[in-house]
Amino acid sequence: MELVAASSCCSWLELLKTCVLSEEIAVALGASDALATCVLGASETSRLAVLGESTAEGGTGDVGGFDGLGLLAAFKVVEGAGRSGAGCNCKSTVAACEGAREPGESTRALKLPLSNQRCASNTTKVSSHRAVGQGRCGAFIIWGSALNQTPMKLATYKDGSRDGQLVVVSRDLSTAHYATGIAQTLQQVLDDWNFLSPQLQDLSHTLNQGKARHAFPFDPAMCMAPLPRAYQWLDGSVYLNHARLVRQARGAELPESYLKEPMMYQGGSDDLSGPQDPIVAVSEAHGIDFEAEIAVVTSDVPMGVDANQALDAVRLLMLVNDVSLRHLIPDELAKGFGFVQSKPATAFSPVAVTPDELGEAWTHGRLNLSLQTAWNERTVGLCDTGPEMQFHFGELIAHAAKTRRLRAGTILGSGTVSNQGSGQGAQMSWPKGYHCIAEKRAMDMIQDGQVHTDFMKFGDTVHIEMKGKDGQSIFGAIHQEVRQANAV
């Protein structure tokens, strides 16, 4: 990441042409007699190194009167950088210049510590600030999506409270560190992401280097859901093979509308299960089923957001077990008012990860890896999560926000991950398996004309996990056992 500084003689249009905001931040110094840059909300361990030469007046460089070398600032860019609105009375961090410089004077490297003070403004527009230091500086900052570069893994440990305690987890899931002093809960971070996430990312970096002083072995059994209770949980159904299979088994066609617009329902979000919490059921007769899915957690989303813009709202990704009671679903849907009793508590992976942590596996709103599901320790599903996703997560978010805002901490699920089979009729096969029992029962009907597979019984287990190309678990595993309600 780079912080690119240009003189005030550059036009904003010219400056923007030279700067891809997804990769860089453009900073134009408003006065030629200073070198200070206003960088707000950055972590206290960050340093600003200003290199190169300034030809603030006259130059014949690539952009107006600014030479191509310019002031190249090698800077660790974090989303917390810059949260001030135009005209705000900002007392946040400024990088004070070492002294006034004349136009064209070569600069020497500066290493300036930045504090964690924050600006009271909550906008993300172009802003102007006067630096406090030995020189004077009017700095203009443009913030782009580059500010979302915060690779890290987060979890919530049980501490006897409803919302648990936030911990930062190492990339290999071996160690963790309490986020005490930064934030107590994940929802607190989501509410103030620009300010808190850079500090968490610094802790994550230190932890991954093995230098965190109070690190401890990470234990998934101690985890609640990353968000133990959320403002809302919305679940879609974007893998059309799932819907197609279920309908094909009963001789029905897939409606045309399924191809044009996502399906979605609103589930319970006040009591989300941890990765090793039991699946609690009253009766096996209810048809206990697992559903292995992916989910995203969003920032605030405005009503009517565009699908591509909506992708910028994705803060975290998780794995999901959307438990269903299949035999209760028909009667509930027949009433025309959606799921309630047929959808008990949903479980989530031990760890939530930022999109940046996923690297190239996260592309255009799709996670391109394989999801693994084991039922009673027997692998039953190993489906690809990217190619057959009819709608990407940006489209899901935009669909949910079509007529209302979404608040930070909203969780949206993909629906059961499913891949197409091959062959015709009784000769059909599904080499990548299934991620819910309802699909397996549909396969039974298509192949043999009758169902051979029963739903889960008390004592059954389900294991859901995703591994990277290096074979390492990314989110940790959901591992649940079915238990009878009065036995818990």
Question: What is shown here, in short?
Answer:
The protein is an alpha+beta fold and 488 residues long.
Task: Pick out its properties.
seven-stranded mixed sheet, alpha+beta, globular, six-stranded mixed sheet, disordered N terminus, 488 residues, single chain
Task: Give me the secondary-structure topology.
Blueprint (H helix, E strand, L loop, with lengths): L1 E5 L5 H6 L6 E6 L17 E6 L18 E4 L37 E2 L13 E4 L7 E4 L11 E5 L7 E5 L5 E4 L7 H6 L1 H16 L7 E2 L15 E4 L3 H10 L14 E4 L11 E3 L6 E2 L2 E7 L8 H4 L3 E8 L2 E2 L3 H6 L12 E2 L3 E2 L8 E2 L2 E2 L2 E6 L2 E7 L8 H8 L10 E3 L23 H12 L12 E6 L11 E7 L4
Parallel strand pairs: 1-2, 12-25, 14-27
Antiparallel strand pairs: 1-4, 2-7, 3-4, 3-5, 6-7, 8-9, 8-20, 9-10, 10-11, 12-13, 15-18, 16-17, 16-25, 17-19, 21-22, 23-24, 23-26, 26-27
Helix pairs in contact: 4-8
What portion of residues is helical? 10-25%
What characterizes the major β-sheet? Answer: 7 strands, mixed
Summarize model confidence as the mean pLDDT: 75
Distance between the termini: 51 Å
Give the strand order, joined by hyphens, for the main sheet.
Answer: 5-3-4-1-2-7-6
Number of helices: 8
Number of strands: 27
> What form results from the Cα inertia axes?
globular
Radius of gyration: 26 Å
Content-based structural category? alpha+beta
